[in-house]
């Protein structure tokens, strides 16, 4: 049975305040738990007028207080901005709040522009140390001793407990896949960023080079895909106009809040029309049976038992309805 999970980015919507997007994420998490989704992840972006979730660890704490079963995670913490010890401490606290339910997804990308990234961490070469950071984070999160000779030897991330967060590697290129394989970590490919380009090669590299370990004896992979279901196919494509307009505008350097679908249509030039046709051709959009069929075929091709879904709509009710319809289509149930 294919498991479904959620990635929500707290997207700003035209006509509503940005803080409302954060509260909508909380509401959606509770709903997705009721519908039987496996996990609920939130993202990290900075100085981004469209995606206003800047502090996943804070948002996860609020969600933990409102849920009891669903796994909660970051997709992800942009590790080069931070000290691994502090990230480990934050997520050990989260695991104390929701024992055995915390995923710590990490990425190397800045989640922002270069100037903002430098303000978060003045070290321009911080990303070069990413592999070392991940190894340190792993040790502090799981409670394994830091080797002698390392500045962190004898330092521990508290609080400790019977469980600890699962570290995930996030990526949209071969780099993350190879690092995840080398470190023996679960791997999530950002399919929605590349529109699927590179996913086959990344998974082949990950599975072929995976190094088993006690915590993760087998490779575990998933994809984060953009999908939108509605009660009818026509309605789904109408709602899709909001994201399509955002994508076309972003390609020209214009980034803003998500527009209502009725206001999202504009005239596109020739090159944009080609890009739009390609976007629509690969989009997981339609009625619930149509989207479910596309998701099953994708999961079968990539040999996955879980898919993470991200959905942007201007109206929160349409977003929630999409997740509700897919939960019913896949007969998701909440374990007792």
From TrEMBL:
Alphabetically, the GO molecular function entries are:
oxidoreductase activity, acting on paired donors, with incorporation or reduction of molecular oxygen
SUPFAM superfamilies assigned: Bacterial luciferase-like
Record-annotated Luciferase-like domain positions: 5-300
> Pfam families, from UniProt?
Bac_luciferase
Which organism's genome codes for this protein? Answer: Limnohabitans curvus
In which family does this protein belong, per the annotation? To bacterial alkanal monooxygenase alpha and beta chains.
What Gene3D superfamilies does the entry give?
A: Luciferase-like domain (3.20.20.30)
Which protein is depicted?
Luciferase-like monooxygenase
Which Gene Ontology cellular component annotation is one that this UniProt entry carries?
cytosol
């Amino acid at each position: 049975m294919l498991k479904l999970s959620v990635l929500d980015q707290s997207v700003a919507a035209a006509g509503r305040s940005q803080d409302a997007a954060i509260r909508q994420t909380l509401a959606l998490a509770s709903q997705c738990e009721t519908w039987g989704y496996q996990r609920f992840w939130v993202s990290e972006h900075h100085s981004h007028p469209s995606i206003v979730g800047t502090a996943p660890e804070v948002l996860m704490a609020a969600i933990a207080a409102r849920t009891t079963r669903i796994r909660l995670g970051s997709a992800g913490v942009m590790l080069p901005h931070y000290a691994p010890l502090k990230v480990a401490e934050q997520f050990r606290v989260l695991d104390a709040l929701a024992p055995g339910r915390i995923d710590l997804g990490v990425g190397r990308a800045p989640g922002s522009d270069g100037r903002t990234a430098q303000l978060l961490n003045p070290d321009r070469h911080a990303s070069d140390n990413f592999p070392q950071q991940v190894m340190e984070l792993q040790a502090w999160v799981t409670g394994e001793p830091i080797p002698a000779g390392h500045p962190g030897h004898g330092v521990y991330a508290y609080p400790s407990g019977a469980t600890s967060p699962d570290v995930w590697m996030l990526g949209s290129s071969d780099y993350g896949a190879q690092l995840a394989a080398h470190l023996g970590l679960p791997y999530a490919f950002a399919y929605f960023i590349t529109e699927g380009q590179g996913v086959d090669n990344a998974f082949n590299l990950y599975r072929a080079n995976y190094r088993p370990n006690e915590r993760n004896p087998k490779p575990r992979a998933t994809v984060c895909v953009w999908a939108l279901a509605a009660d009818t196919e026509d309605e789904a494509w109408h709602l899709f106009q909001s994201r399509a307009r955002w994508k076309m505008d972003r390609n020209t350097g214009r980034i803003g809040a998500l527009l209502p679908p009725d206001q999202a249509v504009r005239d596109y030039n020739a090159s944009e029309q080609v890009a739009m046709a390609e976007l629509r051709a690969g989009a997981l959009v339609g009625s619930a049976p149509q989207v479910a069929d596309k998701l099953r075929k994708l999961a079968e091709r990539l040999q996955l038992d879980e898919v993470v879904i991200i959905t942007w709509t201007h109206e929160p009710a349409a977003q929630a309805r999409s997740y509700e319809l897919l939960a019913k289509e896949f007969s998701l149930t909440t374990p007792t």
